[in-house]
Design goal:
533 residues; mainly beta; Immunoglobulin-like; Coagulation Factor XIII, Chain A, domain 1; five-stranded mixed sheet; 10% helix; elongated
Amino acid sequence: MKSKILGLLCISVFFITALLSLTSATFTVSPTSLIFNQNTNSHTFTLTNTNNSQLLTVNMQSTITLSGLVFDITGNMSNINASEPRTFTVTSRTSNDFSTIDFGSEISGNLLITNINNSNDNATVVITAENKDFCSYDNPGDLSVSIKSMSTISGFGSDEDYWYPLDEVEIEVNVENNGNDDIKNIALEWVLYTSDGQKITDGDESDFDLNDGKDETITFTFQIDPNDLDTNTEDYVLYIKATGTIKNGLNEGEKTCASDSDSIEIRLEDDFVILDSVKFSETVSCGSSLQITAEVWNIGLDDQEDIYVRIYDKDLNIDEIVEIGDIDSFDSKKLDVTLEIPQDAEEKTSALFFEVYDESNDIYQNQEDDEAIFDFPLKVEGCSLTPDILIFAEVSSGGSQGEETVIKATLTNSGKASTFKLGASGYEAWATLKSVDPTTIYIGEGQSEEILITLNLNKDAPTGLQDFFLEITLPDGTKETQPISINVLEKKSDLGSITGFFTEGNTFLKGFIIVDIIIIVIIVIVAIRILKK
């Protein structure tokens, strides 16, 4: 009985040992990840047999293909001794073109290594192909491109040291033809990537030609869009490339390319709310309304509550609080407000300030202590109290000494629309004022209106041109005067109906009277002759 039990125990130990040998790993590989690009076309990895009592033979692919790129795997896979780790080589074929992968991107595949005696005993080496060269072909034209400067036009950045979300930046690039041939259709392309290869934004500029030995400086701008940023990193790389076609020489018609890059930090604060896209008319007039719109952006990593914006202009006595509310991280809300420009504002250029406050009534600021304060010039003009009015006047009726005389005046306003009070003066020595109709009038900008001024001319008023004044009173009480001239005629006598016959223009009546006189003379002569007889 004891012998049977002992036999069963031996058999159990044998099967357990065999099972363990089937399920436990008997080899390792190092490294487990290989990265290939234009500058690296070969890697090795080492396979180590961890079973000291048994030789190892493995199985793996001889080639692996990633998006058209072929990698060859070479090395002896048989009888691997535990004391002698085996080295394998993975090589990118010389015909591989990494430009088939989008610049800054990568693709990966797994090289599976399996114990030939146990499929569960395996390991994996990850093979990655990446495109780290912005140029997709060589540079036979000997172009060179270099980033000369990176400047912050607007925002909180510090030029080439760091930028902030929503900064507008300006990049200056120099492209030089160092070869012996002319190059045509040179295009400048740029792309901003995170340091680990995530594309943020890109663009290109108009193409140009460049003769041998010549260079060209290109300047372009772009804005850092918060929606494009990776909130998990602050490290970015700006890549530039210039590509063109060789115009002449031995390499005529061939493509040529050169590239450059520069690193930049895009800083992310925990709590930072700023303004963007502030829009309003930079020139206003007194008494007008000013509409302002803007985007209030939370470019911090934390959500914000109870945000408000203070808008003020000390010269215009403007001080307005605009409630914004809550804004999530990397989100925005619109500001839309209308301000009234005072009627008595002074014509000048002042500063309109915007301050962004948090829930603790503190102005937002970043780690450099730059505050979320923005100022813009605001020009006030067209507030002059002097009416820009032209007057055309003519006598409508009357005009002689002792007569009631009506003057019709047309007032044309080529200045600001206003309401005026009207009166007259300067006539006292030769007339009395009966009426000005109307006494209050509104004249729009570029518009004309008519008024009637009635004067009673004195009987002894001097004849000829006489001047008086139309008085124009503005809403603030300021008065301006405009001269009006009329021609005063001599008083008409009682024989005016007769003498009027001899006035200029009555030719028919003049002739009629002359004929009558001639007839009377003839009658007198005939009568005298008859009496003599």
